[in-house]
Amino acid sequence: MACDALQAQFIGNNNVLPTYGQNLLQYIEENNLDTSQFLTFISEFASATITSLNNRFPNRELYEAIKIYDPKQLLISNSDLANYSNEVINILSNFYRTEKIINNQQFIPPLEKKDLINEWGMVKFFLKNYRSIKFVDTWNFIFSQTTFIYDFPATSTLIQIALLIPVSNTTIERVFSYQKLIKTRLRNQMNIETLNHHLMIALNRPSIELFDFEKAYDYWYTKERRI
Q1: Domain boundaries defined on the chain
Q2: Of the candidates 144, 167, 156, which has an alpha carbon nearest to the alpha carbon of residue 69?
Q3: Who's near 24: CB < 8 A, 6+ residues apart?
Q4: Mean pLDDT over all residues of the chain?
Q5: How many C-beta atoms lie closer than 10 Å to residue 156's C-beta?
Q6: Which DSSP string do the residues of 20-45 spell out, in sequence order?
Q7: Helix H segments across 97-205?
């Protein structure tokens, strides 16, 4: 969507001139600018931004394909549901059935292509009963209240992977907030390893009601320390 908007507003499509957007047009008008001086630069900058976005998110087709497991995406009629996204399931199965090598580390395929395809024929009819529930809530309920995870192991593996995909930058923003609280001006010599330990504790610690302070104190007290 971002790439399409940049293309339409600052580059143009199929002999259709760019719109340049309301804010830019207003800025040009208010400042009485000669557009011939910088519109080429804007177009080139927009093209570079689109290239950067495409490089940053190379598997957009894969992310889009995951949506078939969102019950809200299911078609209404059973006749249409019979052929729903049969081609998309091939995108997912081809990607996850392939061995991956990342940073010289080998990762075996998490599932078999034929298993995922065979299960999809029944899974989509199973999901039509959950059309009114959000994606995460749907699968949390299905995994906890049904035998789905045993009946459809390949699909369950794929959904567990999908549930790990961050859908926003909230977690990242929280990390930076904690980092500001931990690595202050008075602690600016803290090394990366120590900062990482503090962040791991801050982000993954139990709630204050569940934390065993006596156990933590006993552990700290028995550790040999420099005087």
Answers
A1: 2-56, 60-163, 170-222
A2: 156
A3: 9, 42
A4: 84
A5: 19
A6: -HHHHHHHHHHHT--GGGTHHHHHHH
A7: 113-127, 135-145, 148-151, 153-163, 170-182, 192-204
Query: Can you tell me the mean pLDDT for 68-88?
Result: 78
> How far apart, in whole angstroms, are the C-alpha atoms of residue 184 and residue 190?
9
- Please count the other Cβ atoms lying within 10 Å of the Cβ belonging to residue 141: 13
- Tally of CB atoms within 10 A around 43: 15
Nearest to 84 by CA among 60, 63, 67, 62: 67
C-alpha distance from residue 112 to each of 23, 119, 120, 165, 196 (Å) = 51, 11, 13, 21, 37
Which two structure tokens, joined as six digits, stand for 172? 């990242």
Q: How confident is the model at residue 156 (pLDDT cuts 50, 70, 90)?
A: very high
Tens of pLDDT, residue by residue over 123-149, are 988 888 887 777 888 898 899 989 999
- Alpha carbons 121 and 84: distance in angstroms, whole number: 9
Residue position matching structure tokens 């090394």: 191
| pTM for this model (two decimals) | 0.53
**Quick one: which of 61, 85, 58 has its CA closest to 71?**
85
Number of residues that make up the chain: 227
